[in-house]
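Task 17 of the worksheet. Students: predict the tertiary structure of the chain below and write it out as structure tokens. Keep your answer in the requested format; marks are given for formatting as well as content.
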Amino acid sequence: MDRVKIMVFERPVVIFSKSSCILSHTVKSLFNDFGVNPTIYELDEIARGSEIEQALSGIGYSTIPIVFIGGELVGGANEIMSLQLKRGLKPMLVRAGALWV
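Model answer:
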């Protein structure tokens, strides 16, 4: 878990993803449409990806993608899309310094 904390601490938006996951692609596209440049870790392509995925499941998320904004766990695709529909995602990105308005 400490490794995950280090990975998300210094970046405004971090997405743990898998390259073949359509929900991951959708979430990454949403952030790109905002003009946000998230840090993306493709767990099926990086060294120790399975260890990181295991650590993430230890915090209650076993599905991909997993999104952190401002160092805080936001959730997966459902939570991100829900925030977007409620118009809560953009203010969160601004507060995290990921988006300038």
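Marker's comment: The mean pLDDT is 93. Residues 22-34 form the longest helix (13 residues).
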